[in-house]
Amino acid sequence: MKKLRLIKNIKSVAVALGVITVFSCNTNTDSKSASGSKSENPYQEKVDSIIGLMTLDEKIGQLNLPATGPITTGASKSTDVVKKIEDGKIGGLFNIKDPKNIYEVQKIAVEKSRLGIPLIFGMDVIHGFKTTFPIPLGLSASWDMEMIEKTAQIAANEASANGINWTFSPMVDISRDPRWGRISEGNGEDPYLGGEIARAMVRGYQQDDLSANNTLMSCVKHFALYGAAEAGRDYNTVDMSRIRMYNEYMLPYKAAVEEGVGSVMASFNEIDGVPATGNKWLLTDLLRDDWGFNGFVVSDYTGIYEMRAHGMGDEYDVTSLALKAGLDMDMAGDSPNIKASYTYALKDALDQGKISMSDIDKAVARILTAKYQLGLFDDPYKYCSEERAKKETLTQENRDYARLVGAESTVLLKNDNQVLPLKKSGTVAVIGPLAKAANNMPGTWSVSSDHSKAISVWDGLQQTVGNDVNLLYAKGSNLDYDLELEKRATMFGKDIPRDGRTDKQMLDEALAIAKKADVVVATIGESAEFSGESSSRTDLGIPQVQKDLLQALLKTGKPVVLVLFTGRPLTLVEENETVPAILNVWFPGSEAGLSISDVLFGDVNPSGKLTATFPRNVGQVPLFYNHKNTGRPLGNREGKFEKFKTNYLDVRNEPLYPFGYGLSYTTFDYSDVKLDKTSMTDSDTINVSVDVTNSGDYDGKEVVQLYIRDLVGTVTRPVKELKGFQKVFIKKGETKTVSFTISVEDLKFYNSNLDFIAEPGTFHVFVGTNSNTERMKEFELKK
Ligand code: BGC
């Protein structure tokens, strides 16, 4: 694609107005981070000069991010986009595909609008662009920060070649509630791990140069606490104490800010009774003043407008509330049916004296700064390269990497009698409604993915072991007995066509096929859109028709391997009791079939570990490992009921599979925990180590996890908190020493004054294979 001239028209207006110094266009002065430091904005002078040239309409235009993309999730649909761009009334667009389209649209902004200010192009590049990696919850189960960073880097490279320069990722909302469908989009329940992943993702997207044409500006979301929606129902109210927020929920957002994330998306929910979108404490006092963020804040989809339904007032009240709170850009507010938007209401709000020009200028300045940081004033077309797009998108190299990541993210939940790995011989029956559902393999929130290129389990097995293994197939069942539910769970082109046969006919066929096989691979679970946005559930079981299919298959007496698709922790008590092998594959991405085959046949030894607890039943929810002890803890670890203790009459307290849990084809033995000393002060450290021996028959990777418990505090402390982990490769028969260093920073928490401090006293340190570990040593933090 030929490059066009730079933004000449902005230059000529500037010359005419005598502010030519603004446009030296040297965008390489700063790049590392948009926000991480409180350093001066190197573009301030340029930005101020542009603002000096702008009309009020043009200023409000910069704050306008209309919805034009393929997916509409809220009330909005904007109109007259081209005319508005020409009039300088749009600051950016999102979810437009194709570098050619983006180029054309950018050309309108740059050549036809009065000031020629380039647009920013955003997209939900959530877990890969065209090359799609596992859904984030799955990816987090890899516990591999380098790998996670690289997936973001590949996504950035592909997306930026296709005209995108801003991604609405990472989503770092802690969630302890698998009813909430968006748990699939996050990194599970742990703040420390969530923080590490947030950092890795931001690094991967932004690298150390936002202005490079192969990086994206990252947008951490949804700020804040979105994952704590009451009853797991999406968009529902959140109500939480400050101390819980600070200790258990805020850390991943803060980590992203420390890593220099360029932008932040406000969440839909309320916090302390004020929607995040209009919450000044959140968006200014905490985010900017305490954490030092100086990038820009965008609303979520129609978030400003939604404050009307929240009961925050009329269109002038809600827009001014948002702007004054520090919300810079209005996503999807520009729609004729939405009056409560920056586009439609801000001018009047100014006339009414509800906001000032300086409030508007502040927001405009942040958006223009982001455009400078991205190098858009230097070359507005730098991200549109059809040639690069063709060469660098969905390359074999990227696909091979996605195949590996898909395999590394699988979690082996059960493997009795070493049913897995399978032998590459004999007859394998592949049965279940997900076996051929290629379009479901990329999982939820995969707007940029090319679903037609995704590889189903069936195709993956054909490609990998098709010559050695006799593969048989039967669909076995539909996704669900309930047609209406099935429709809701197969949206966005991810349909699993309903079979015209009766349930009985499908089942009979499946049983006949199973009987011919040596082993049955049951590909069942949720469809991709069973989780994700607006996909909350109250029943966390495998859909009943598939449960029935599975039990019928087990009755054939053939060994059954459950290849479980899910976007959330499910309740699997019955399956855990009856199925010999369960491999949780989440939604592995574009290469799903190959990733799954690699694990099933032992080319990759599974090493994923759960990052969200799997409860026994829905009644236990919310259930998480880092809970408090209470005043009436159970006195036994066997889960026996005790009257007047904190437990249930009808189910034990422990989950089915705890946080950090995951098996391997090999086994790992741990030595006792060793400490180099048993006390420390805040100026020294303790070395903690264990010897881990691979005592099984396969080489493998183990995620060694370190947890701490602070026994006494001025506020109650969790029974365990993850404070370190290492993923180590250990050959069979080999022993590796794994060491961690504990410093006072690992012992700090927010006390009731919200001071971040460590209190002297006794601590327990645990090291083991999951959060249930009891392998422990004690140490003191001295004054
Ligand atoms: C979601 C965001 C997403 C946005 C733009 C909203 O509905 O909550 O996560 O980034 O849409 O597509």
From TrEMBL:
GO molecular function: beta-glucosidase activity
Ranges for domain Fibronectin type III-like: 702-771
Keywords: Carbohydrate metabolism, Glycosidase, Hydrolase
Gene3D superfamilies with a match to the protein in the record: Glycoside hydrolase family 3 C-terminal domain, Glycoside hydrolase, family 3, N-terminal domain, Immunoglobulins
InterPro entries with a match to the protein in the record: Cellulose_deg_GH3 (IPR050288), Fn3-like (IPR026891), GH (IPR017853), Glyco_hydro_3_AS (IPR019800), Glyco_hydro_3_C (IPR002772), Glyco_hydro_3_C_sf (IPR036881), Glyco_hydro_3_N (IPR001764), Glyco_hydro_3_N_sf (IPR036962)
SMART domains: Fn3_like
Family: Belongs to the glycosyl hydrolase 3 family.
PANTHER family: BETA-GLUCOSIDASE
Descriptive protein name: Beta-glucosidase BglX
Organism: Winogradskyella marincola
